[in-house]
Write a structure and sequence with these properties.
Blueprint lengths: L15 H15 L10 E6 L5 H9 L14 E8 L4 E7 L6 H8 L2 E4 L5 H12 L13 E8 L5 E5 L13 H15 L4 E8 L8 H9 L6 E6 L9 H10 L10 E3 L9 H5 L1 H11 L12 H41 L6 H23 L1
Parallel strand pairs: 1-6, 1-7, 2-5, 7-8, 8-9
Antiparallel strand pairs: 2-6, 3-4, 3-5
């Protein structure tokens, strides 16, 4: 039997009540409603090399590429769905600025994987399909890589990994790239139905990390933002930097109503065996380091999964009435537009009859104007 993701890593994300609500959202997403209105989701945002892809990997169980250099070059939607058969399906959603011809080509990008180990390879194939590897091409794309993981024991959840925010242009990243990435991330963050996971690396001063300002701009009360501190093991024990990040984790500096969480990233050079032991390695770190002073509920990936479970459930429950209202409004608008177009004109005969009717009405109107 194919095991496409570690279900134990996501077991905390489900309860009977949550499943019922998430089933509704999943059904709407399967019908393509996300193209017309925002649906509740988790979005992972952060500056470049902040460790956000490692956080997403730990949450989802999918092996996202982890590099110190340029990483995520496009938005990746990971959709976990319940189904009778087990499979991983990967496709591309063309960006709005693509031409009709480009949209047709990108829409044809589709791959079914036999195992999750093949997932990192799809990043390279997706880059080629988007033209990101061509000489003089953009370093980033507005296209979306959509990964659907299905199986009878899978939870229903959507997690979006976004390109890292760039501070300034350089030899590999132009001013246009900087603008594109910022607009892309902001478009996701602006949705009031998105839960923002603002990832901050302990390797850099948090005051200099763009993601915090952007999170404050779109969510000034901090109602739908969770701060996540990564790479705490890079801080020297007893230093001012460590004390500052401990204060941040206690929600004493940049304050979010949902608070902060601290996770230890897997080392970049970790192999498959080490990847499987990341949770135990992380637990050992929080038992021995000064971060042990923090509540157990705010450290480690295991408690983060449990925390996100309740956050996502609350978000879906609170947004569902508004979502129903949006759907009804959209249906009414569409019906009104169709009514204005008149009767259906699919066949040549129907189209010919319509044109004759229009010409007759115009002729009558012209005669009345003359008389």
């Amino acid at each position: 039997m194919l095991v496409v993701t570690d279900s134990a890593k996501l077991e905390h994300l489900q309860t009977r009540e949550q499943i019922k609500l998430l089933d509704v959202i999943d059904a709407l997403r399967a019908e393509g409603l996300s193209e017309y209105t925002a649906l509740p989701q988790l979005i992972v945002c952060g500056d470049q090399s902040s460790g956000k892809s490692s956080v997403l990997e730990a949450i989802s169980g999918l092996p996202f590429p982890r590099k110190e250099t340029l990483c995520t070059r496009f938005a990746t939607e990971v959709i976990l769905r319940r189904a009778t058969d087990e499979f991983i399906s990967v496709s591309l959603v063309p960006g709005k600025t693509r031409s009709s011809q480009e949209r047709d080509v990108l829409s044809g990008f589709h791959h079914d994987l036999s195992s999750r180990e093949e997932f990192p390879v799809l990043f390279e194939k997706a880059k080629q399909a988007m033209g990101l590897d061509a000489l003089g091409s953009l370093a980033f794309s507005e296209d979306i890589l959509r990964v659907e993981v299905s199986g009878p024991t899978q939870p229903q959840l959507t997690v979006v990994d976004l390109p890292g925010l760039i501070h300034s242009e350089n030899r590999k990243q132009s001013a246009r790239d900087v603008s594109l990435v910022h607009k892309l991330v902001e478009s996701y963050m602006n949705s009031e139905r998105s839960i923002i996971l603002a990832v901050v690396s302990a390797m850099n001063e948090f005051a200099n990390q763009i993601v915090l300002k952007k999170a404050r701009d779109v969510d000034p009360e901090g109602e739908r933002t969770i701060g996540i501190i990564t790479k705490p093991d890079t801080l020297r024990a007893g230093t001012n930097s460590e004390r500052e990040f401990l204060a941040l984790a206690r929600n004493e500096d940049v304050k979010f109503k949902r608070g902060w969480h601290v996770v230890k990233n897997l080392d970049l050079g970790a192999g498959e065996g080490e990847t499987k032991d990341r949770d135990s390695e992380e637990s050992l770190f929080f038992e021995k380091s000064n971060f042990k002073s923090l509540p157990p509920s705010s450290v480690g990936i295991s408690s983060l999964r449990h925390r996100l479970s309740q956050v996502l459930f609350d978000q879906v429950r609170s947004e569902l009435p508004k979502l129903v209202e949006d759907i009804r409004s959209g249906i009414a608008t569409t019906r009104d537009g169709l009514d204005k177009l008149g009767p259906s004109r699919v066949t040549p005969e129907e189209q010919r009859a319509f044109l004759i009717k229009v010409s007759q009405e115009f002729q009558i109107l012209s005669k009345d104007a003359i008389n």
